[in-house]
Write the structure tokens for this entry.
Amino acid sequence: MIIDWRKADGSIDYYVNYILDKKRGSLIISGDLGDCIATWYNAVSPRQMRSYLKDVHYFTSKFQCSTDKYIYDPDSAFEDIKYQLKDYMKLEPEELLNACRKHLWYSVETEEELWDAVKSDIDE
């Protein structure tokens, strides 16, 4: 399974390519922000992979190799993420919460809880 992620306008800024080898249990990620190979050594389905990706520490423990090309200051990363989610996407607060629940797997009820969860994930 191959997924090419890019901006809706087709530009390749922050382009990311995901290759999931379901039979061997490998996920290869490559793109503008760096590269990694993660391996589970057994067959995985997209549904299983989704659950694995919810736990960042578990996911990174499966890395066989990765680039450390980009290292970010946690506070700057938080502000960038907040800008991208809140200001760049121009979503109303409830739309933002719904999108984050659906796509980022945050179980939050308020915008403040969302930013606390994002900050906590970055700091870990």
